[in-house]
Amino acid sequence: MLYLGWMLLWLVASGRLEGPDISGMKDAGSYTCRPRIRSPQDEACCVKMILEVKPKTNISCGSPVSYKQSLLLGSMDSIRCPGLSHQSDAQSPEVTWYQNGKLLPEERRSPIEVDEIYDYHQGTYVCDYTRSDNASSWTVRAVVQVKTIGKPLTLNCTARFGFERNFKPVIRWYIKDSEQEWEVPAPEEKSVKSTLKDEIIERVFFLKEVTQRDLRRTFTCFAQNSIGNTTHSVQLKEKKGVLFLYILLGTVTSLAGALAAGALLCRYWIELVLLYRTYQSTDETLGDKKEFDAFVSYAKLSSLESEATPSLSEEDLALNLFPEVLENKYGYTLCLLERDVVPGGAYAEDIVSMIKKSRRGVFILSPNYVNGPRIFELQAAVNLALDDQTLKLILIKFSPFQEPECLPHLVKKALRVLPTVTWRGLKSVPPNSRFWTQMRYHMPVKSSKGFTWDQLRIIPRIFSLEKTQENKSHWEELPA
């Protein structure tokens, strides 16, 4: 059994003869060899051979031919024609080479052997060769993209020379490898610093591309004056772990970006939720058969306590700021005991009735509240919220307080688990402050027709002292 492209060899007593070139499936069949008898001593013989021809495969080739090659500058390498990579010199046909469209007349074989790779070896190579059988022939063309790799490097030699009357310094660069040493051209030396006592001069040697061969060489700087000379040698080493450094930097940068994004998301989560509600969420107040958006509970101060309080009190917050901001600006409906409950009824029954008609319960906590009779309203709301899933409670920490021991266990637990919004004095007064943003976050979702970006402004405006004083005077004029 022979494969396409093999030579048929005939062995006879007088020696070896080459047979026909087996180049096609038509060459299969029976072959008979009858050697010519030239002398009486020759023995007559007849050899019959049945030849089966099979197509030649590339099973013996290790890997598919690459149509892109990278050549390391300064190294020894070869440029191969795809399709001829696995053939011996005897089998390889004549090849016509082109580089960037120009004929390479000296290159007639594959591969092209290059003793040392330079920049000009980079480009597009085209190789043409001829294939044929007994009946026909054809031209095969293959294209190879060759790229050179390597990085530039600057070597700086700086020498300090003492004072001389006839100052003639010499600075040179030499390259030494295992076989020879030679001086390399470099830009003229230049003076870096000059004083009466000494002078500093440098000379720079620039490597356009660092090659593999440069890693095996020694670069020597030679400095000389009238007194003597000195040398300093440099051996280049290949950097390791550069890819790992890039991966590490990329990972750290990605992690830092993720942490920063998480911090921003956490910081402005409420604003994002409010923005989403404005455009996407449905009105949760539709069809719930409730009259108020929030029931507001606070501690009512006596006339003496009101006069003794120089700043804004919880009563001012409930009766003035809440209606001004939540009702007038954002369209919520509040239930205020002094305003919306008809006097004369049973206090406990009225409170329970108003809370049942409300979607939220807002409780302004202060020492007067937790130690006074109004704590009953919080206790009643907690009991109602256990049965009514649509009723949600909001705590406002108006001023610091200490829990009394006599508080019911259910109220103590509510103080720990319910959402709490902290009042921060005059900083919380502006309608676009953080306090009101948090309040809107906990209030029922309602359709907002008059939404503006000013409602979500993150940096609150500072109210002028004059405006604050006007509001304070307005609150003082209101009846208790």
From TrEMBL:
GO cellular component, one term: membrane
SMART domains hit by this protein: TIR
InterPro entries from the UniProt entry: Ig-like_dom, Ig-like_dom_sf, Ig-like_fold, IL-1_rcpt_fam, IL-1RAcP-like_ig, TIR_dom, Toll_tir_struct_dom_sf
Membrane disposition: Single-pass type I membrane protein
Transmembrane stretches, start-end: 243-270
SUPFAM superfamilies referenced in this protein's UniProt entry, alphabetically: Immunoglobulin, Toll/Interleukin receptor TIR domain
Main localization, broad class: membrane
Domain Ig-like: 55-145, 150-237
Lineage: superkingdom: Eukaryota
Subcellular location: Membrane
Signal peptide: 1-17
GO MF: hydrolase activity; interleukin-18 receptor activity
Domain TIR: from-to ranges: 290-443
Keywords: Disulfide bond, Glycoprotein, Hydrolase, Immunoglobulin domain, Membrane, NAD, Receptor, Repeat, Signal, Transmembrane, Transmembrane helix
Family named by the database record: Belongs to the interleukin-1 receptor family.
Identification of the protein by name: Interleukin-18 receptor accessory protein
